[in-house]
């Protein structure tokens, strides 16, 4: 592994990304929409009358036993925010698959892969460079969105709501799960681009992974699961295992001759 | 500098390159001719360590294909069939990526040298997506040279260009001759091969013939001269045929075509004999065959053999 060559690939990917409106719009859209929605929802819910959240009233949510000590309105807002945080974790899932697939399929389209592969770069260096280039912006965007949400929450909501947002289960999820999601998504992009010729088609692959995340969030909303550190630990273990498997497949498919000639 | 031994590449049932044995010397400009699908690009890809041979082996710059691929890639420059530039990046960025991948010492200096040499220096900050095909091709050539490779592979360097741009590129390739670099050119353009190449190989999966363009001509047609006459005389062919150095005579509408051992030595005798027999000679000229004729005859020969 030659780090200089990996750095060249990363800088090339970022230069190109910076000039690709499609990718930039996609990168900006999800975080802006999500952060706006979280803060907007909290803002308006916090200003709604208390009795709307009483048990049996329209807006109330049945709180899990662990949160029973909270007043209904605060509890409902926290439950809502928890839901949104699941969606925030989808940012590092949605973006890298597109970036990675685009960066490989795009090179096939412009026919730049062949001259590139005729340089001393190894396929491993190329794969690592492209992976870092796809994972980093997505993780930074997820972290930025989380930080922005926390800051907004600090300003517009009660201290209790803020504290619940930044409790360890979420800060650790952002720290650990966001990169794992981004890596998984990147590997999917690499795999997809060895078979497909359209980065948007590749993106649909991640729908497979969105389903379990949304499912998990629904279970939490219905009170079937409580967001504990133990749950996070299991989720992390599972993610590591899935990542290893998918990454193995990506490396196996990302071979010089395959990516060069399985195309036309 | 390049040596192949029974080099073979099969894609499934499709035999793309069959049992190719060749040697290209250092500093030689070597032409690789053949119709579409003849296996030219595949050969170049094997020699650039991009695809693995399915049989035989090859050495480039003394490094063995499949064994020392990294060394091969570090020492060659490859101009692919399409330029394969990054359209959103500018000329300088496109070039600097490759210079840095090759770990060039003086990146800025090499960029300046080659962008200037190819007339792109003024436009180095423009995205190359807006460049004409000719400019893109020139940039791609600069990219293949920026790390000063000792072997340069050019895959149909002018075939996608308009005649004007093709000429600029061809002229530039000509300036690369004699700098000690080995240049391996795949081309459809036979005049180009004739002009640029020290030797050419004609291939169609298998090697059909390899030699200097002049030797190919001579091997196929021998030496011959055309004698143009004011009016045909039926007695002349017999007179010519009787000369000891003549191999054959054919009558043409405007005179005779005579194949003989050595025009320089034999022409005076030939002309003397013709004049004596009453011929009114207008011109005597060396018969010239284009590489194109040679190529088509070789192709026809190989098809008849198959
Ligand atoms: N990646 C590939 N997979 C399958 N067949 C291929 C591949 N690349 C080339 N071929 C086949 O190999 C033969 C030689 O192709 P190529 O080397 O591109 O010829 P040329 O460059 O002389 O036109 C053709 O029949 C072509 O279809
Ligand atoms: Mg070709």
If you had to describe this structure to a student in words, what would you say it looks like?
- The complex is a heterodimer of chains A (264) and B (306).
- Chain A is mainly α and 264 residues long.
- Chain A has one domain.
- Chain A contains twelve helices and no strands.
- Chain A has helices at 3-18, 21-46, 72-88, 91-109, 113-117, 123-156, 159-165, 168-193, 199-203, 207-221, 229-253, 256-261.
- In chain A, helix 8 (168-193) runs parallel beside helix 11.
- The radius of gyration of chain A is 21 Å and the shape is elongated.
- Chain A starts with a helix and ends with a helix.
- The model of chain A has no long low-confidence stretch (mean pLDDT 87).
- Chain B has 306 residues and is α/β, with parallel strands linked by helices.
- In chain B, 38% of the residues lie in helices and 28% in strands.
- Chain B has eleven helices and 14 strands.
- In chain B, the strands form three sheets. A six-stranded mixed sheet of chain B has the order 6-7-8-3-9-10, sandwiched between helices. Chain B has a four-stranded antiparallel sheet with strand order 2-1-4-5, covered by helices on one side.
- In chain B, helix 3 runs parallel beside helix 5 (133-145), helix 5 (133-145) runs parallel beside helix 6 and helix 8 packs across helix 11 (291-305).
- The radius of gyration of chain B is 24 Å and the shape is elongated.
- In chain B, 42% of the residues are buried.
- The model of chain B has no long low-confidence stretch (mean pLDDT 91).
- The interface between A and B is medium-sized, with 25 and 34 residues.
């Amino acid at each position: 592994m030659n780090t200089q060559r990996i750095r060249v690939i990363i800088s090339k990917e970022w230069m190109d990304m910076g000039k690709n409106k499609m990718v930039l719009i996609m990168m900006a859209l999800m975080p802006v929409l999500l952060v706006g929605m979280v803060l907007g929802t909290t803002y308006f819910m916090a200003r709604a009358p208390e009795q709307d959240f009483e048990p049996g009233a329209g807006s109330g949510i049945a709180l899990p036993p662990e949160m029973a000590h909270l007043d209904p309105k605060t509890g409902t807002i926290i439950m809502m925010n928890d839901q949104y945080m699941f969606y925030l974790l989808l940012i590092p899932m949605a973006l890298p698959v597109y970036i990675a697939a685009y960066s490989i399929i795009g090179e096939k389209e412009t026919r730049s892969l062949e001259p590139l592969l005729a340089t001393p770069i190894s396929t491993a260096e190329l794969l690592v460079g492209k992976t870092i280039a796809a994972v980093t912006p997505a993780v930074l965007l997820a972290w930025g969105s989380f930080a922005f949400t926390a800051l907004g929450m600090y300003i517009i909501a009660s201290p209790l709501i803020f504290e619940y947002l930044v409790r360890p289960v979420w800060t650790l999820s952002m720290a650990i799960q966001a990169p794992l999601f981004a890596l998984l998504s990147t590997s999917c992009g690499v795999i997809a681009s060895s078979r497909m010729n359209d980065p948007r088609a590749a993106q649909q692959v991640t729908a497979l992974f969105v389903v379990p995340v949304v499912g998990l969030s629904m279970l939490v909303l219905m009170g079937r699961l409580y967001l504990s550190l133990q749950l996070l630990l299991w989720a992390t273990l599972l993610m590591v295992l899935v990542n290893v498997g998918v990454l193995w497949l990506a490396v196996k498919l990302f071979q010089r001759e395959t990516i060069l000639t399985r195309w036309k | 500098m390049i040596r192949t031994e029974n080099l073979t590449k099969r894609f499934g049932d499709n035999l793309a390159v069959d049992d190719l044995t060749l040697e290209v010397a250092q500093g030689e400009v070597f032409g690789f001719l053949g119709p579409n699908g003849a296996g030219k690009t595949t050969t170049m890809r094997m020699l650039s360590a991009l695809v693995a041979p399915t049989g035989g082996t090859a050495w480039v710059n003394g490094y063995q294909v499949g064994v020392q691929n990294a060394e091969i890639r570090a020492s060659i420059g490859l101009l692919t069939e399409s330029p394969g530039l990054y359209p959103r990046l500018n000329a300088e960025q496109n070039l600097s990526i490759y210079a840095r991948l090759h770990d060039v010492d003086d990146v800025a200096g090499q960029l300046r040298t080659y962008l200037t040499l190819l007339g792109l220096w003024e436009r180095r900050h423009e995205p190359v997506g807006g460049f004409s095909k000719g400019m893109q091709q020139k940039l791609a050539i600069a990219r293949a040279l920026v790390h000063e490779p000792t072997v340069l592979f050019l895959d149909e360097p002018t075939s996608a260009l308009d005649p004007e741009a093709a000429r600029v590129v061809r002229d530039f390739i000509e300036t690369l001759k004699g700098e000690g670099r080995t240049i391996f050119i795949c081309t459809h353009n036979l005049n180009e091969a004739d002009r640029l190449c020290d030797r050419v190989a004609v291939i169609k999966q298998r090697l059909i013939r390899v030699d200097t363009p002049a030797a190919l001509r001579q091997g196929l047609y021998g030496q011959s001269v055309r004698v143009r006459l004011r009016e045909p005389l039926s007695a002349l062919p017999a007179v010519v045929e009787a000369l000891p150095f003549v191999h054959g005579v054919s009558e043409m509408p405007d005179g005779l075509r005579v194949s003989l051992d050595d025009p320089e030595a034999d022409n005076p005798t030939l002309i003397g004999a013709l004049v004596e027999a009453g011929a009114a000679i207008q011109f005597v000229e060396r018969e010239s065959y284009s590489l194109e004729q040679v190529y088509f005859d070789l192709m026809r020969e190989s098809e008849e053999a198959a």
